[in-house]
């Protein structure tokens, strides 16, 4: 089996999987998509490229030891960056680095690895290697640059000891001033895919401790599913569950990147999202104090029984005291202010003779 089948797993199990067939030298023999036609696929080594947005990639200083010990040390070192307990995750290791260099580590959810395996099994395939798409890209020659290429709906980025996939509109924030060296030509991307298939930078399946096989769940080969001409709903459920679990953590990374892009002076060890939220709450409202007063008067008038007791504008922003009948009325006031593109932050609330009194700050939404 000197030929290699390279599959690009799509971000959704409902989408077709693109496929390249390569010879032993990495030349492309065929291009297309994998389809259920009732015939078992030809046996050959299979390399799957998975969405990089669902894989956490880091370079770490790690101790020596067995692969299992080193992987456990990697998960322990990354514990503050992970969205799930270590026993639900799989850490794959890159090649042993030269002395003084850090080691490549890729962490993925075990349930998501299983879902990808089940997706391939529904097509009659089983992966020998799984690689995140961001590691397909080459490291840029320049220190202040990032290689970039589109895979599916995301943009894969690669730098020195950096690899991730993000939504394209967040690329500039993540780049933080570094030049994006975009790779857009199909033949160049095919060349990089072929190179990675011949010499995988990492294998996510190696970190699972065993092959991720759908057969133990009772799935049959694609020939048995061909009559349905569709991916099983259970496979879609598995893929969705694993995808959502890891997307939650990926959303946190994207939010942090957006926060740091908006406020580049946030300290490296600070909670960027919390700090950005605090700054936005204290930011002058759109249109200044006059616009804030007009919006607040309108909001108070829209809530029955609410009253505006005081309004001040100074160096610390626009503040007010409002009185209303029930606690849920504050939610209504905040929603009304949001309709004007402003926020209403509750800084203190007390009960006063059957009424509720709040000190609030008006800020940007």
UniProtKB/TrEMBL annotation:
Keywords: Cell inner membrane, Cell membrane, Membrane, Protein transport, Transmembrane, Transmembrane helix, Transport. It comes from the Bacteria. Residues 218-360 form the GspL periplasmic domain. It is found in: Cell inner membrane. InterPro entries: ATPase_NBD (IPR043129), GspL_cyto_dom (IPR024230), GspL_pp_dom (IPR025691), T2SS_protein-GspL (IPR007812). Pfam families: GspL_C (PF12693), T2SSL (PF05134). Residues 44-162 form the GspL cytoplasmic actin-ATPase-like domain. It is a single-pass membrane protein. Belongs to the GSP L family. This is GspL cytoplasmic actin-ATPase-like domain-containing protein.
């Amino acid at each position: 089996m000197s030929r290699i089948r390279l599959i690009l797993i799509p971000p959704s199990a409902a989408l077709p999987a693109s496929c390249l067939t390569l010879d032993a030298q990495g030349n492309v023999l065929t291009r297309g998509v994998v389809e259920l036609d009732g015939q078992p696929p030809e046996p050959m080594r299979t390399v799957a490229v998975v969405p990089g947005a669902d894989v956490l990639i880091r370079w770490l200083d790690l101790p020596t030891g067995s692969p299992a010990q080193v992987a456990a040390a990697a998960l322990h070192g990354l514990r503050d960056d992970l969205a799930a307990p270590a026993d639900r995750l799989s850490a794959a290791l890159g090649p042993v680095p030269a002395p003084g260099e850090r080691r490549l580590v890729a962490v993925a959810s075990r349930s998501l690895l299983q879902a990808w395996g089940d997706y391939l099994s529904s097509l009659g395939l089983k992966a020998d290697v799984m690689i995140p798409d961001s590691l397909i890209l080459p490291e840029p020659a320049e220190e202040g640059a990032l290689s970039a290429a589109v895979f599916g709906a995301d943009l894969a980025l690669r730098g020195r000891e950096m690899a991730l996939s993000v939504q394209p509109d967040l690329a500039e924030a993540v780049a933080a001033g570094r030049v994006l060296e975009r790779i857009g030509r199909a033949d160049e991307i095919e060349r990089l895919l072929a190179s990675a298939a011949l010499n995988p930078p990492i294998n996510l399946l190696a970190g699972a401790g065993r092959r991720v096989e759908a057969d133990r769940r009772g799935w049959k080969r694609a020939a048995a599913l061909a009559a349905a001409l569709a991916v099983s709903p259970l496979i879609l459920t598995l893929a969705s569950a694993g995808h959502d679990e890891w997307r939650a953590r990926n959303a946190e990374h994207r939010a942090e990147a957006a926060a740091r892009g908006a406020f580049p002076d946030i300290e490296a060890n600070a909670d960027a999202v919390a700090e950005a939220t605090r700054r936005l709450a204290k930011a002058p409202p759109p249109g200044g104090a006059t616009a804030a007063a007009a919006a607040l008067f309108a909001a108070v008038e829209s809530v029955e029984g609410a009253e505006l007791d005081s309004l001040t504008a100074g160096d610390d922003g626009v503040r007010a005291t409002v009185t209303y009948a029930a606690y849920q009325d504050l939610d209504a006031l905040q929603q009304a202010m949001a309709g004007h593109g402003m926020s209403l932050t509750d800084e203190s609330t007390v009960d006063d003779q059957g009424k509720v009194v709040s000190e609030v700050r008006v800020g940007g939404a």
